[in-house]
Specification:
By secondary structure, the chain is mainly beta. The chain is built from one helix and five strands; from the N terminus they run E-H-E-E-E-E.
Length: about 70
């Protein structure tokens, strides 16, 4: 299994675009310049009044399929 850690700062206003289906995927640039993308609906459980803010960890299986995403800090 592999994991990637990254920081997200998405305002509540910006998150509306994901919520309303205007944007299907979130694209994040991680350390080293690598870009990953994942389904926007993965963020739903991490949204609060200010949007989505914090450090996250995504765990992938050996075929690079996402297993889980969790907040590691605020």
């Amino acid at each position: 299994m592999n994991e990637i850690r990254f920081r997200l700062e998405i305002s509540a206003q910006e998150y509306l675009r994901y919520y309303q289906g205007e944007v299907d995927f979130v694209r994040v640039t991680i350390a080293g310049g690598q870009t990953i993308q994942f389904p926007a609906n993965t963020l739903q459980k991490h949204v609060d009044q200010s949007g989505v803010n914090g450090s996250f960890r995504i765990v992938f299986d050996d075929n690079n399929k996402m297993i889980s995403m969790e907040r590691v800090t605020n």
